[in-house]
Inverse folding.
């Protein structure tokens, strides 16, 4: 598996973990351990996305770095870039 795919896989795992923690915290809002885990995985996800954007380009339109033109639609799509 190449670096790009490994980083995307890591981001997906963080997304899944955060969604599960979100659901748990909805029913256990004072659980400090779950809240700490949510903060930890939020930071890990942010760092992984920042690395992905730096190395491979934006994953979402709001992360497009070009201020001169709308590059989000340029081929290949961001998740197809190698």
């Amino acid at each position: 598996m190449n670096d790009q795919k490994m980083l995307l896989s890591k981001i997906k795992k963080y997304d899944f973990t955060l969604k599960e923690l979100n659901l748990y915290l909805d029913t256990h809002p004072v659980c400090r351990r779950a809240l700490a885990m949510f903060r930890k995985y939020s930071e890990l996800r942010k760092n992984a996305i920042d690395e992905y954007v730096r190395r491979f380009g934006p994953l979402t339109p709001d992360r497009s770095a070009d201020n001169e033109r709308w590059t989000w639609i340029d081929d290949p799509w961001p998740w197809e870039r190698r």
Q: What stands out?
A: The chain has two helices and no strands.
